[in-house]
Amino acid sequence: MSESLHILITGAAGMIGQKLIARLTREPRLGGKPIERLTLVDVVEPAAPNNTPFKVTSRTGDLSLPGEASAAVADSPQYVFHLAGVVSGEAETDFEKGYRVNIDGTRFLFEAIRSREGYKPRVVFTSSAAVYGGPFDGPVTDDFQLTPHSSYGVAKAIGEQWLADYSRRGFFDGVGIRLPAITVRPGKPNKAASGFFSSIIREPLAGQNAMLPISEDTLHSHASPRAAVNYLLHAATLDTSGLDQRPNLMMPAVACTIAEQIEALRKAGGDAAVARIRRVRDTLIERIVSGWPHQFEAKRALALGFVPDKSFDEIVAIHIEDELGGKAAA
After folding, report:
1. Closest by alpha carbon to 23, among 308, 294, 264, 232?
2. One of 79, 99, 132, 152 is an active-site residue; which one?
3. How far is CA 54 from the centre of its chain?
């Protein structure tokens, strides 16, 4: 690789993409080398940061359309963070869109990379815990079979298999990270089935009401946006020779029940914050979430240096610090 780097981020307008961009702007090096250029791609024009120490190119493009993926890698970025995708709830209600974006977009991007002679970037692919499906007799281990129970999970599992095969064939150097629920997501609610995990913390801390669609005894695993960005950057610089041709890794996470989430909210925002949660059952959300694993033993990722949040209390504290100026609403 050259001494300065060109990085491509797909899905750059999304929350994780924007968090990654902000981090790279503050710390403009990767693997010890300075970043020279950042290319941002999404179906809506990604917000480009101001006063960056590197050149930023922001473009609108749908990777599932002919030619868009080839244009995205035309200048041969050495690192490709493939974050683009239709989220779980929307992929379940709009089957064609979910498959087009999550499957065709990934295939076209991987093919665009393969078709460039002499080009072998590091590709970091964001997969999901949705690649797993029950029944679960306990925590999911690294060798648990992929049996997704949602269209989103199927698409991510397909992407993982492509990533593994393209890496094995030497078309690129790939690492796939299976993310748990990212909590607490800033901004407005999206169509992810897991979105309420963030809403029941984010809205009450901002003085707004939130809907809880499933039972409080539901156990699930979480990572903060800060941890997710750390996972991406660590995956980008990981020595892949130790992956043993198994480049897809479950990320470590904090497991807790929704009731325990609510108690963390109470510690941070008091009884007034908890009172802003409204219980409104949603059978579609129940069905999707019931098919996801709820706890992980991510021994491979931990051994490779991926570091999770310490507790859900810490996850809430990170949200307050990063998004609320250090203070929750009264």
Report:
1. 232
2. 152
3. 24
Distance in angstroms (rounded) separating the CA atoms of residues 63 and 105 = 5
- Per-residue burial over 90-113, b if 16 or more Cβ lie within 10 Å, else e, is bbbeeeeebbbbbbbbbbbbbebb
Give the residue carrying structure tokens 């899905």: 11
Question: What is the four-CA torsion angle of 22, 26, 32, 33, rounded to 10 degrees?
Answer: 80
Largest CA distance in the chain: 60
In this structure, the strands spanning 210-212 and 219-223 are: unpaired
**Matching CATH number, 5-179+224-250, of 3.90.930.50, 3.40.50.720, 3.40.50.1220, 3.30.420.40:** 3.40.50.720
Residue 152 annotated among the catalytic residues of the structure: yes
CB burial of 52-64 (b: ≥16 within 10 Å; e: otherwise) equals: bebebebeebbbb
- CB neighbours (10 Å) of residue 266? 15
In this structure, the strands spanning 79-82 and 55-60 are unpaired
Which tokens belong to 78?
């050495």
Give tens-digit pLDDT for 158-203. Answer: 999 999 999 999 999 999 999 999 999 998 877 788 899 999 999 9
Q: Which DSSP category does 241 fall into?
A: G
How is the chain split into domains, by residue range? Answer: 5-179+224-250
Contact 14, 48 (CB under 8 A): no
Q: Exposed, middle or buried: residue 28 (CB in 10 Å: 0-12, 13-18, 19+)?
A: middle
> Tokens 């503050």 correspond to what residue?
26
pLDDT at 50: 87
Assign 226 to helix, strand or coil. helix
Mean pLDDT score of the chain: 94
Please name which of 203, 174, 328 lies closest in space to residue 276, comparing C-alpha atoms.
203
